[in-house]
């Protein structure tokens, strides 16, 4: 088990599960909730910006988030991942990025 505490808005490299594939890929993800026992609610980050949905938030590389290229937070791609699947922390969302993702999550929840 990873003993490092994680907080909402932290970007981590994590073994991200994919429903369409039996394996995991190490991908960046944003922690949305860290209050689950031994688990984290995370959302997927991709550098594939060609298929943008209404719930995607563009993230530009910065010294704060430590992303290597322009990426998209797929707010409608949430999953629960085990804490031990975190490879390492990568960075932190800026207050503006955090706000944009929070707004997108609220819009997603309104459709539920």
Topology:
Layout: E1 10-17, E2 24-33, E3 39-46, E4 56-59, E5 71-82, E6 86-92, H1 95-110
Explain what you see.
This protein has 112 residues and is mainly beta. The chain has a single domain, classed as SH3 type barrels (Roll). The chain is 14% helix and 44% strand. It has one helix spanning 95-110; strands at residues 10-17, 24-33, 39-46, 56-59, 71-82, 86-92. It has a 6-stranded antiparallel beta sheet. The longest helix is centred in the C-terminal third of the chain and has 16 residues, at 95-110. It is globular and about 30 Å long. The termini are far apart. The mean pLDDT is 90.
Briefly, what is this?
The protein is mostly beta strands. Strand 2 and strand 3 (39-46) form a beta hairpin. The protein contains one helix and six strands.
State the main characteristics.
112 residues, mainly beta, SH3 type barrels, six-stranded antiparallel beta sheet, globular
């Amino acid at each position: 088990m990873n003993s490092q505490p994680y907080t909402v808005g932290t970007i981590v490299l994590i073994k991200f599960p994919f429903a369409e594939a039996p394996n995991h890929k190490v991908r960046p993800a944003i922690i949305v909730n860290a209050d689950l026992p031994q688990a984290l609610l995370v959302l997927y980050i991709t550098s594939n910006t060609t298929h943008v949905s209404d719930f995607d938030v563009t993230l530009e590389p910065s010294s704060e988030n430590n992303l290597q290229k322009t990426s998209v937070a797929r707010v409608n791609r949430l999953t629960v991942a085990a804490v031990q699947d975190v490879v390492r922390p990568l960075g932190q969302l800026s207050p503006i990025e955090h706000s944009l993702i929070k707004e997108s999550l609220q819009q997603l929840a309104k459709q539920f």
